[in-house]
Design a protein that fits this description.
By secondary structure, the protein is an alpha/beta fold. It has two domains: about 140-410, Alpha-Beta Complex (Spore Coat Polysaccharide Biosynthesis Protein SpsA, Chain A), CATH 3.90.550.10; about 460-720, Spore Coat Polysaccharide Biosynthesis Protein SpsA, Chain A. The chain contains 27 helices and 25 strands. A nine-stranded mixed sheet has the order 13-16-15-14-17-23-19-24-22. The radius of gyration is 35 Å and the shape is elongated. Pfam families: Glyco_transf_49, Glyco_transf_8. This is LARGE xylosyl- and glucuronyltransferase 1. InterPro entries: Glyco_trans_8, Nucleotide-diphossugar_trans, Xyl/GlcA_transferase.
């Protein structure tokens, strides 16, 4: 908000420059024109006539001096011209002043009287800038629908949080998909002094579904029209933003502009920066009516209380009905209707300076928004609007600068935005209070403190990072493959998709920057892009351990099928396993019995493997030493109870008993218990889960014609720590003993066998 004052200071400095530079120059020249107390003429002819000491060198010096004087005078004339142009343009072109004058050349109005009506009261003085109270809550409304828009909202919110100094209240008009994604995201983000309210966009469809709309935003692009009805009746003002907006300043500066509204001004908008509403883009181009260039609705300031009193709902409906009789449909969704209303009622709008909505679509005049801005400012605009279907691929002379700013927030670590607003009391958050209580009960001097703390760490989670579309089979036999991975296992995704045609639920442990790398990888893969039944859930990195069981729980929780196959990312299932498992759940009546169907696990040490297409082929490779039973040489106990000798000749499913350290890969109903979060990194994460399944009296049944093969890879960071760090192994042993004690307390006498089995193993 110091932009106006800075502009005035620049104007004063420039004026003083004009006054003093010529004076100093002439004083210098005058002083330099005396030699031995006698005046020296600047004219070479006079010098030759009156100076006996005239030489060729002094002649050249004086000519050079004359040239310099002329250059200074030309610079001064140019500076005077710039200042006079700046004065004639008014303060609108100086950063921080929110007024603008109109000109016929810009096409911003139909007549001088209309222009005067729009800009009345839009001027302000340097010393009278409105101030937002320190702890005043800023309300922001966003319409969001679908998977891709939810990703865009996150980047927008990051840019707002990065600069903000005030409490924020986001009002999200969202469909069921966006609500699920964003509710989980904000719940796990736990940003102080941020409140989120959701409004069902699907319930609002009937309010605008009667309006034909050609815009790519679809029906959701019309919902900003009904915000006066949708938002709480006691909410007086709100900033409305498109999802493709990026902030480069504190949103409080925009909120402060509300104080400048006067008279009947109820809408704050930036002029449209393309020629769309001028109707000259192509032959027979016929846009909706607008005032001059019209206004862009990517950023709107709404005075809701006044709009309600003016009967906004009736106003826009009548206008839309009238215009649709000739226009038939909207081309730019709500923007067309807003502009048609403003055309008839220009007094409604307060025109914002264009740097509050720099529109980066093709062929816009956005450069004019920052061309004359303060060169000492960090960013040449306050709000960037990627209002083109091309988004970051838009053609703009300065797009690289704005793209880099956008990418900064896209890859920015969202955990760093969990900072408190000191001096502003936050609303009581039950989840946050419970977390603080749990953490306070931990002993920080405990050598295993970091392990225990990880159990209570809340990881920011973005569900369905990519588009997901799948309806489970109607016969209630569908099975989802569940797995988790980090960036170093990304190469396994395509292979798994080729082996498993059914639905997949994956939890990926990534940083914000890695999430964007994954997005680019997935979008560049024909295999992954052809699959819409894979749910990718991003769990953002935090802490020093790999939260393997949290990741499994996230992937398990978000399946839509009645059964799930609990696998790992470095295993390839046999071809046809998906259909085989669907038949097996019927054959073994999994719907009505507590069974865990075991898929026998094998491994290869070869990076290039001719994958066996049948059990007979697998047995042959097993005999030749190309394949091995999984971990037979380092952890035999993990899969020995599967009884591979019996499996070789089995033709029907057979039951096996639980043994210590058993950790098979199983197919279970979706209501099975979660994994225990105390186990992180390497060790006992699956063992504990299988133990709990046994405690709940699950029956372990080995499938005779199913198999999966582990593919080789470099050792994980966590197994390296386990092998090299003695304290790591001590803490894992401690956590294991505590888990067994918890099992005994929870399941009573039946769980004592786990302690006995452990002691005997």
């Amino acid at each position: 908000m110091l932009g106006i004052c800075r502009g005035r200071r620049k104007f004063l400095a420039a004026s003083l420059t004009i006054l003093f530079v010529p004076a100093i120059t002439w004083i210098y020249l005058f002083a330099g024109s005396f030699e031995d107390g006698k005046p020296v003429s600047l004219s070479p002819l006079e010098s030759q006539a009156h100076s006996p000491r005239y030489t060729a060198s002094s002649q050249r010096e004086r000519e050079s001096l004359e040239v310099r004087v002329r250059e200074v005078e030309e610079e001064n004339r140019a500076l005077r011209k710039q200042l006079s142009l700046a004065q004639s343009r008014g303060p609108a072109h100086r950063r921080g002043n929110h007024s603008k004058t109109y000109s016929m050349e810009e096409g911003t109005g139909d007549s001088e009287s209309l222009r005067a009506g729009i800009v009345a009261g839009n001027s302000s003085e340097c010393g009278q800038q409105p101030v937002v109270e320190k702890c005043e809550t800023i309300h922001v409304a966003i319409v969001c629908a679908g998977y891709n828009a939810s990703r865009d909202v996150v980047t927008l919110v990051k840019s707002v949080l990065f600069h903000r100094r005030n409490p924020l209240h986001f009002h999200l008009i969202a469909d069921a998909i966006a609500k699920q994604i964003l509710a989980t995201l904000f719940q796990t983000w736990m940003v102080p002094a941020v409140r989120i309210d959701f409004y069902d966009a699907d319930e609002l469809k009937s309010e605008v579904s009667w309006i034909p709309n050609k815009h790519y935003s679809g029906i959701y692009g019309l919902m900003k029209l009904v915000l006066t009805k949708t938002l709480p009746s006691n909410l007086e003002r709100v900033i409305v933003l498109d999802t493709d907006i990026t902030f480069a300043t504190d949103i409080a500066e925009l909120w402060a502009v509300f104080h400048k509204f006067k008279g009947q001004q109820v809408l704050g908008l930036v002029e449209n920066q393309s020629d769309w509403y001028l109707g000259n883009l192509w032959k027979n181009h016929r846009p909706w009516p607008a005032l001059g260039r019209g206004y862009n609705t990517g950023v709107i300031l709404l005075l809701l209380d006044k709009l309600r009193k003016m009967k906004w709902e009736q106003m826009w409906r009548l206008t839309a009905e009238r215009e649709l009789m000739s226009m038939l449909s909207t081309s730019l969704a709500d923007q067309d209707i807003f502009n048609a209303v403003i055309k008839q009622n220009p007094f409604l709008v307060y025109q914002l300076p264009c740097f509050w909505n720099v529109q980066l679509s093709d062929h816009t005049r956005s450069e004019q928004c920052y061309r004359d801005q303060d060169v000492f400012s960090l960013f040449p605009s306050e709000v960037i609007h990627w209002n083109s279907p091309k988004k970051l691929r838009v053609k703009n002379k300065h797009v690289e600068f704005f793209r880099n700013l956008y990418l900064t927030f896209l890859e920015y670590d969202g955990n760093l935005l969990r900072r408190e607003l000191f001096g502003c009391p936050s609303e009581a958050d039950v989840n946050s209070e419970n977390l603080q209580k749990q953490l306070s009960e931990l002993d920080e001097d405990d050598l295993c403190y970091e392990f225990r703390r990880e159990r209570f760490t809340v990881h920011r989670t973005h569900l369905y990072f990519l588009h997901y579309e799948y309806e489970p089979a109607s016969d209630n036999t569908d099975v989802t493959l569940v797995a988790q991975l980090s960036m170093d296992r990304l190469q396994m995704l395509e292979a798994i998709c080729k082996h498993w045609e059914g639905p997949i639920s994956l939890a990926l442990y990534l940083s914000d920057a890695e999430a964007q790398q994954f997005l680019r990888y997935a979008q560049g893969s024909e295999v992954l892009m052809s699959r819409h039944n894979v749910g990718y859930h991003i769990v953002y990195k935090e802490g020093q351990f790999y939260p393997v069981n949290l990741l499994r729980n996230v992937a398990m929780k978000h399946i839509s099928t009645p059964y799930m196959f609990l696998s790992d990312i470095d295993f390839l299932p046999m071809y046809g396993l998906y259909e085989y498992l669907r038949k097996s759940v019927i054959q073994l009546d999994l719907a009505n019995t507590k069974k865990a169907l075991i898929v026998p696990a094998f491994e290869t040490l070869r990076y290039r493997l001719s994958f066996p297409k049948s059990k007979a082929e697998l047995l042959s490779m097993l005999d030749m030493g190309t394949l091995f039973t999984f971990r037979y040489h380092v952890w035999t106990k993990g899969h020995a109870p599967t009884n591979f000798a019996k499996w070789r000749t089995a033709t029907t499913p057979y039951r096996v008993e639980w043994e210590a350290d058993f950790e098979p890969y199983v197919v279970v109903r979706k209501d099975c218990p979660e994994y225990d979060r105390r186990f992180v990194g390497f060790g006992w994460n699956k063992v504990a889960h299988i133990m709990e399944l046994d405690a709940q009296e699950y029956e372990f049944t080995v499938l005779p014609n199913a198999y999966m093969i582990h593919m080789p890879h470099a050792p994980s960071f966590d197994i390296t720590k386990f092998r090299s760090n003695k304290q790591y192994r001590i803490c894992l042993k401690t956590l294991k003993e505590e888990f067994q004690q918890d099992m005994s307390r929870h399941y009573g006498f039946a769980a004592l066998k786990y302690l006995t089995a452990e002691n005997n193993s």
